[in-house]
Amino acid sequence: MKIKTISDQLSVSEQILPAQIAEIAAAGFKSIICNRPDGEGADQPGFAEIEAQAKSAGLTAVYQPIISGKVGDQDASSFAKLIDALPKPTLAYCRTGTRSTTLWSLAEGARGRPLPDILSAAKVAGFDMNGVARRIASKGLVGTETVEAHAEVVIIGGGAAGIALAASLKARRPELDIAIIEPADVHYYQPGWTMVGGGIFDPATTAKTMASLIPAGVRWIKAAVAAFEPQKNAVILEGCRLVTYRALVVAAGLKLNWAGIEGLSETLGRNGVTSNYRYDLAPYTWELVQSLKRGRAVFTQPPMPIKCAGAPQKALYLSADHWYRQGLLKDIDIDFFNAGAVLFGVKEYVPALMAYIERYQAQLHFQHTLTRIDGEKKRAWFWKADADGTKSVIETDFDIIHVVPPQVAPDFVRVSPLADAAGWVDVDQSTLRHKTFGGVFALGDVANTPNAKTAAAARKQAPIVAHNLLRDLGYGGDRDAIYDGYGSCPLTVERGKIVLAEFGYGGKLLPSFPGWLLDGTKPSHLAWLLKERALPPIYWQAMLRGREWMAKPELVA
């Protein structure tokens, strides 16, 4: 008997036996629902036997038989009423647990629970409910008709990757019918937030309205995605509206899992707890840096993958540079707690970075993962991974702490048929096509490609996806475009100097400029000028407008 938890009120299992009732009672269950009709299998005990044993063990047992493959809406409604009325927790069973999970999923949809949450809970328990996703989504809108739309190309996400791709497609084929699905009203230049946290950029310069950036001729569907039906070339929106397509591109970014660190959400933006990973908090970083005259400054980095792997230490460098220039370092202790085993994943850049770690007298703590924080008491706790594989808890105090949250794929992606085992969209790392479903691509942070998750990567990926997608649709091209894993991380080691890390798959260096002009392994003022003055207009006026300066795709030989 394998019992699988669906919620705090309900667990499901395969067929149970009368002899197992005592074990079920000992596990704390108060009631049982049988969703399997008697006589369905030759080795199946009748419900009367189960009921008798349950009664003797002090459990309530209810018979709600459902024929396999025929879970009806009224069945789900009755199941919901049982769950509400029975003593809890409840164990529901059928032949495998799937029928019981389907009943729960439809019932929760009727209650208005978000579809990604339902699919996620079922998936954690080992059940794939994507096959009934459309039915689940519709249950919260009884009497409302499904609204359907169609586009030749549907792009999920209006961030850097999504808009850059739409612009690239329009530049190549202006008449192409494209729709972007994006619920947000504002688009952010997120690479600028590190500079905001260092007192260099005004936060307002990193935000523009979404409407001003959607390319001309591209439809904007202002809605959130609930689920995918790639077998039917359809996307389910919240509210059970359907959007169908010939080609689908997922550019949904990633999810900052603030709740993944105990106590963090309750103290963000106060008590000296900040993060440059949020638009409204980056100015608070600079406020804290300016106000700190003595004490302990802690900077953290979670396990990979994360958006811009260099950003956690960029916050350290710019903050420490301010204290260095103010002559305050003698009174400020700086600690960098990194869940990884090295300062930076590409060894050629480490010597230059270590020179600044030494300049700022920062203490490095590798394989330390932030797990809990108490802002009021100014305490933080980390899991430390020891060499022998054991873990220990490390506690530290702080006066200010810059936190980078753990990061995962968006919920609706993570539980979808498009995702790999880790939750990211499963694509070929060279062509960015989905490995299983034809006509599906992904780019940007949501793809499972092993490159740095940066805007620079999306800038290179957009024309590659545009080329390959149009080729698949029959609009020309006899060869695929190939992505080499390029990503760029301008490491702001001090105000006025940057170590410009540019690399691809396997850590291969991929510099954009000749070494005599700009050696990316060394701090450079020219790289700073590129970051401060050139990259923002390149982002707004080139990347998001389909102008692919230094981003022409390479075709396979």
Automatic annotation (TrEMBL):
Top-level lineage group: Bacteria
Residue intervals of the FAD/NAD(P)-binding domain: 152-271
Keyword Transcription regulation part of the UniProt annotation: no
Gene Ontology process terms (BP): sulfide oxidation, using sulfide:quinone oxidoreductase
Domain Beta-lactamase hydrolase-like protein phosphatase-like: 3-108
One Gene Ontology MF term: FAD binding
Classification via Pfam families: BLH_phosphatase (PF04273), Pyr_redox_2 (PF07992)
Keywords: FAD, Flavoprotein, Oxidoreductase, Quinone, Transit peptide
Keyword Cell membrane included in the entry's annotation: no
Protein name per its UniProtKB record: NAD(FAD)-dependent dehydrogenase
Cofactors, names only: FAD
